[in-house]
Amino acid sequence: MKTIDLRSDTITHPTREMREAMFRAEVGDDVFSEDPTVNRLEEISAELTGKEAAVFTPSGTMSNLIAVMSHTRHGDEIILGDRSHIFLNEAGGAAALGGVSLRTVPNNPDGTIDIDIIEGAVRGRNLHWPPSKLLCIENSHNFCGGAVLDVEYTTEAASAARRHGLSVHLDGARIFNAAVSLGVPVIELCEPVDSVCFCLSKGLSAPVGSVLCGSTEFINRARKLRKMVGGGMRQAGVIAAAGIVCLETCVERLAEDHRNAKSLAEGLSQIHGLDVERPETNIVMFGMPNSLPAAEFVKEAAAVGVKLIAVGPRRVRAVTHRMVTAEEIGEAVKLISGIVGVNR
Ligand code: TLP
Description:
The chain is an alpha/beta fold. The protein has helices at residues 16-24, 36-49, 60-71, 85-88, 93-96, 115-121, 151-163, 175-182, 186-190, 216-228, 237-249, 254-269, 294-303, 326-340, and strands at 4-5, 53-57, 77-81, 101-105, 132-138, 167-171, 195-199, 210-214, 275-276, 283-287, 306-307, 309-310, 315-319. It has two domains: 13-249, Type I PLP-dependent aspartate aminotransferase-like (Major domain) (Aspartate Aminotransferase, domain 2); 253-343, Alpha-Beta Complex (Aspartate Aminotransferase, domain 1), CATH 3.90.1150. 42% of the residues lie in helices and 16% in strands. The strands form three sheets. Strands 2-8-7-6-5-3-4 form a seven-stranded mixed β-sheet, sandwiched between helices. Strands 9-10-13-12 form a four-stranded antiparallel β-sheet. A hairpin with a 6-residue loop joins strand 9 (275-276) and strand 10 (283-287). The longest helix has 16 residues, at 254-269. The radius of gyration is 20 Å and the shape is globular. The structure holds ligand TLP.
């Protein structure tokens, strides 16, 4: 049976061009900063985000962890959205390994956090309180259905944090999706923040990797922390080479994933009982009728060849990506409507 895998854009395989670049990659020991391909990827990434420096890591989770650790000390507090990936889906690493307390504040459905809520969450000086040191935001916002934060909001949020002496980290795992959707260069979305990380291995289709960017001083700290948590990767040029190719060849095409997400959402919204959120990028979230728990539905969908992920008791996520065509999106809608019931 054919499978249409909409669980995540992380399932994308490297392109032929990436595999060729990996084969040819010049390498060296990256722990000695001697891998020319990694060095090149870091330079390109710093330039793209408008930061002084960058460090290549194996995953978005590691980039976020070492970013939080570089901005804070044990016992500090960070402010972040209650639907943020750092809070929900990184195994509690910021608390467990970073030693910070996580002050969650409500994310709006559009991925923003109200500015007065950010400011209200900042702690004053008091013997009893942990010092607030960092604000984390996310763009595009995964669990807010791939919602994008525009330059104006990012600037406002960052200014509010700075007014209180906080640094700002942007989890930009899918920042290129946000930039393509908004039609603005990535550098503008990153300008207001102190640090940003982005993933090469999601919609951009590289097999592994993420890059964390920031000031030279910040990246020097992050590089040491990367070593501490076991992320020193030696001849990593083999994977960095795919990262360079994905930045050169896979950014513009994200628009196609966004078009597919729109048509998937339109198709699904015709199915009685599904409550479909309007996608801004490549993530489509939808609610299930009371009679059908998300976990049950996901099992039934997999049985007919459509793979999805339940992100709540009644909420399901579908992600479009390079390995799913527009035609397959139409097929997926048909298969799903067969499970949920009759069309409206
Ligand atoms: N997200 C994964 C899963 O963890 C849910 C996915 O399939 O979407 N930040 C954001 C916003 C992310 O969406 C992810 C991965 C990460 C960080 C972590 O990246 P990795 O998986 O490379 O550690």
